């Protein structure tokens, strides 16, 4: 009798194991499918930063505007949007979006990009305000060399050549490899009456690019001036 009952008992080594293996296999399959779906989704998600780096500025703008419309904007959204618009010389749009972004995020990238947009629309006072704000907040920031260059150009436009000298001297201190910047420094010094210092700046520009036209003519003017 005991033997018959034992025969009717389920075989523990088969039933639970088969059921467990099936559940595990199904679970693994589901996890793999979800992982693949997530990976594909991540791969196809528009990336404004990637488009900007690839110089696809129009695509970067479209992605950023879509993020803003969807209520998913970040400081990065506005920074990349403004950089892209400035690259496309769409300065008025950059100012409009940058003003909106500056109200939402206290990010110096937006402030700097606004300054650039204001500069190219001829609003030098507003541009200078933004550049000064950037310098005060990030004296060693990533864009500090460009900021000082733009400040120098603004001071030249305003006829404040000593201030231009200071700003452009700081610009080439941070980035000494630009012939253009050295030539503009030479011009600012020349206009301020510092002829020897101007000649030094023009010579430095020519050492970087011997074909820089502004530096060539400036060098000749200063050489003649100092000989007279």
How would you explain this protein's 3D organization?
- It contains 13 helices and no strands.
- With 228 residues, it is mostly helical.
- It has 2 domains: 45-122, Serine Threonine Protein Phosphatase 5, Tetratricopeptide repeat, CATH 1.25.40; 143-228, Tetratricopeptide repeat domain (Serine Threonine Protein Phosphatase 5, Tetratricopeptide repeat, Alpha Horseshoe).
- The chain starts with a helix and ends with a helix.
- It has helices spanning 2-8, 15-44, 48-53, 57-69, 75-87, 91-104, 108-120, 124-137, 144-158, 161-174, 179-191, 195-208, 213-227.
- The longest helix has 30 residues, at 15-44.
- Mean pLDDT is 88; it is low at 1-19.
- Helix 7 runs antiparallel to helix 8 (124-137) and helix 12 runs antiparallel to helix 13.
CATH class of the largest domain, anyone?
Mainly Alpha
List SSEs in N-to-C order.
HHHHHHHHHHHHH
CATH topology of the largest domain: Serine Threonine Protein Phosphatase 5, Tetratricopeptide repeat
Proper CATH architecture of the largest domain: Alpha Horseshoe
**CATH H level of the largest domain: which superfamily?**
Tetratricopeptide repeat domain
* Major sheet: none
Q: On the 0-100 scale, what is the average pLDDT?
A: 88
Q: Total helix count? A: 13
Write down the domain tally: 2
Which strand-content bin applies to the residues? Answer: under 5%
Q: Structural class of the helices, strands and pairings?
A: mainly alpha
In short:
This protein has 228 residues and is mainly alpha-helical.
């Amino acid at each position: 009798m005991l033997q018959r009952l034992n025969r009717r008992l389920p075989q523990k080594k088969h039933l639970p194991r088969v059921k467990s293996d099936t559940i595990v296999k199904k679970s693994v399959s589901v996890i793999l499918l979800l992982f693949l779906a997530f990976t594909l989704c991540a791969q196809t998600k528009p990336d404004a930063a990637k488009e900007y780096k690839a110089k696809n500025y129009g695509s970067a703008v479209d992605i950023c505007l879509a993020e803003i419309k969807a209520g998913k904007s970040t400081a990065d959204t506005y920074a990349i949007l403004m950089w892209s618009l400035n690259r496309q010389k769409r300065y008025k749009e950059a100012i409009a979006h940058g003003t909106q972004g500056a109200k939402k995020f206290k990010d110096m990238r937006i402030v700097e990009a606004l300054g650039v947009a204001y500069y190219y629309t001829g609003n030098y006072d507003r541009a200078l305000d933004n550049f000064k704000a950037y310098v005060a907040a990030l004296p060693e920031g990533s864009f500090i060399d460009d900021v000082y260059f733009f400040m120098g150009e603004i001071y030249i436009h305003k006829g404040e050549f000593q201030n231009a000298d200071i700003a452009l001297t700081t610009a080439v201190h941070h980035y000494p490899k630009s012939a253009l910047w050295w030539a503009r420094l030479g011009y600012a010094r020349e206009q301020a009456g510092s002829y020897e210092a101007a000649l030094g700046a023009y010579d430095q520009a020519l050492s970087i690019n011997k074909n820089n036209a502004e530096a060539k003519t400036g060098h000749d003017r200063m050489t003649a001036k100092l000989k007279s």
